[in-house]
Amino acid sequence: MSKLKDRILSYEESSSYKILPKLPLIISVNGRNFSSITNLLDKPFDTGMYDCLASTMKRLCVEIEGAVFGYLYNDNIIIISRNDQNIATTPWYNNNIQKLTSVISSISTFHFNKCADHIGLQTSGDPLFYTKVFPVPSVIEAINTIIYYQQLNFTISIHFSCYYELIKKYNKSQIKNMLVNLSQTERIELLKKECNVDFKDYSSSFRRGSACFKDYSGDQNEKSNWIIVNDLPIFTQEQSFLKDILN
Questions:
Q1: Cross-strand bridge partners of residue 130
Q2: CB 115 within 8 A of CB 17
Q3: Residue 41 per-residue DSSP state
Q4: What contacts 82, CB < 8 A, 6 or more positions away?
Q5: 3 state DSSP class of 205
Q6: Backbone conformation region of residue 196, classed left if phi is above 0, alpha if psi is from -120 to 50, else beta
Q7: pLDDT in tens, 169-203
Q8: Cα angle vertex 187, ends 184, 192, to 5°?
Q9: What whole-number distance in Å separates Cα of residue 183 and Cα of residue 105?
Q10: DSSP conformation class of 18
């Protein structure tokens, strides 16, 4: 029995990978096939859907040990967790990748669906989430990661706004030809010319994403609370915003 136990446990341990401790950890949570299950929702931006995602982001920030910052764009949630702030800090679940990804995916799926049921969000299937985790070598690179995702969000939001406004007038093939090789500025101009829609009129959450972090501005005797901020700056222009939070 003992030999059998040791052999089976050795199989289990052989794929029990861990991330190096004392490094900022990036946790990326994505909706699975959300482009298909959201076809009944408002496009390019559905406030109910986004509210559920924002609530899920906040729940993850509360649940994940060491979490310091959450960023939401499209159907993606990014959490930055730090266990490198002092020598005694230990990683959540000992940075075991299998445990981290399974627990975080479960929390995300359960909370999002509970929120969606509460507000009557109509999806064309069961919303599920998958998770990736990876370390970055420094806080500076964690900041750069968030900057990259905000830039990616800007590109995606311009594309979505153009596509879903133009589809009211043209077919998919025509839209593809209209948008090919256009810069972001040119796409924004096309949106205004063809659809009389000013990209700046979309909510800041759609254009720049939303964030979740602890508010320390109140009474020092009061416990800090996680807050959601929908009106974010452009991070490349105000990098102190991220530095102050992550540090």
A1: 30
A2: no
A3: S
A4: 24, 25, 66, 68, 89, 139, 246
A5: helix
A6: left
A7: 999 999 999 999 999 999 999 999 999 999 999 99
A8: 130
A9: 35
A10: B
Q: What token pair was written down for 151? A: 């830039």
Q: What is the CATH number of domain 17-150+203-246?
A: 3.30.70.3000
Q: pTM (2 decimals)?
A: 0.93
**Which of 166, 192, 196, 193 is CA-nearest to residue 179?**
166
Burial class (CB in 10 A: 0-12, 13-18, 19+), 212: buried
* 230 neighbors 203 (Cβ within 8 angstroms): yes
CA nearest to 75, candidates 233, 210, 224: 210
* Domain extent listing, the chain: 17-150+203-246
Three-state DSSP at 38 gives coil
Q: What is the pLDDT of residues 70-80, one digit of tens each?
A: 999 999 999 99
Which residue is associated with the tokens 């593809």? 176
